[in-house]
Amino acid sequence: MRASWVRLHSPASGAPDPLAAAVVAQDLELVRRVRLGDEAAFEQIFRTYYVRLVSFARTGIDSQDLAEETVQEVFLHIWMRRESWVVERSLAAYMFRAVRNRISNARRSLKLETCYNADIARETDGGPDVPCDGRLREAEIEAALAKAVALLSERARQVFLLSRRQHLTYAEIAEVLGIGVKTVEMHMARALSQLRLALSEWRQP
Fold it and tell me: pTM value?
């Protein structure tokens, strides 16, 4: 059985996604309700983003407890200042940017070291009942991928993980990182190129 292989292809460009637009509209409605003190709306945002934000925080904090605390502080800050909370475009981009900024502040004040734990097994296409040798090969591929991701430049690594692990669009990644969409595309292209090169020995003929 052929071992699974990581997807290292850029997403196809096209017309705006109506579903994505609907999600943004729904999120902004939740923001409006939170500003009015709607606890149910706040809880819905919390349930939607908490796990993803903690996972993202772990890419910059080598502690599960501290990552969770960081995300919780973001949510607490939002609720305490809910009446003046403004999200102009993507709520997802806003939340990830807020966590990223809090981590950056923590690094400056506490001198936390960055530790990117590139556990991106989801990047592989899992298959049913893979034989032992197949599972071993997949584990080796995943380990090689994690090592290759860790060797990317910091910005390329951020772009790659936000895209592949957190499923943000290029526009959302640009907003999170404070860079242009074209710059995101450039970093993604470089990341994919480096990963293909690093993992070339694992590719199927």
Answer: 0.55
